[in-house]
Amino acid sequence: MCGTVGHPLHSTEKGSIPVHCPFCRHCDTKVSDSRAAEDGSAIRRRRLCPMCERKFTTIEQIILTVVKRSGVVEAFSRDKVMRGVSKACKGRPVTQAQLAALAQRVEESLRASGQAEIPSEKIGVAILGPLEELDSVAYLRFASVYKNYESVDDFQREIDALRLSATVKQPRPEGADAFDRITAQEPLLS
Ligand SMILES: [Zn+2]
């Protein structure tokens, strides 16, 4: 019987949501097989309708959500990342394809963090790394807004860090975290 029609999509059985049979509309189909699809961000389920005994497949996409400072929750959007970053890339030799690749990297790193709900600040952090590799001017623009630079000194510090990552130097400046990171990536230069 379809007595639960109309109630919200609460999970009834383990990891499974009631799905209507696409053939006979029976509302209580059984999952016969579940497996991760694509990069693990989706689950493909083979389902069987006990009424008409036909089989069909569903894909459940794991939605990344973003929690804004205001507390508002919304779905993660690669387009939004691209729009934000493209403002910083204005006039720079950065292509749409590069922006799309950057947004994909950002999404992958957020998914890899294992959190389903990401505070919006973390998206900025996830953008900084790939953007620094892509274009240093765009990076500075983005970082100046994101990190809320208040003085020329803030820019200077960031530029110094960028120079350090561009040219690898031998003696270590005191307390340069960025420098530690770079030397760790360059084992040949010890
Ligand atoms: Zn059916």
SSE blueprint and pairings:
Layout: E1 30-37, E2 42-48, E3 55-61, E4 65-67, E5 73-75, H1 78-88, H2 96-112, E6 117-119, H3 120-134, H4 136-146, H5 152-166, H6 177-185
Parallel strand pairs: 4-6
Antiparallel strand pairs: 1-2, 2-3, 4-5
The chain binds zinc ion (ZN).
Zinc ion binds next to loops.
Average pLDDT level: 79
Q: Structural class of the secondary structure composition?
A: alpha+beta
State the oligomer. single chain
Sheet of most strands: 3 strands, antiparallel
Percentage of residues assigned to helices: 40-55%
Q: How many helices in DSSP terms? A: 6
Beta-strand percentage?
A: 15-25%
The backbone outline, from C-alpha atoms, is: elongated
Bound molecules: zinc ion
**Radius of gyration, taken over Cα atoms and rounded to an integer in Å:** 24 Å
Poorly predicted tracts of residues: 3-15, 169-190
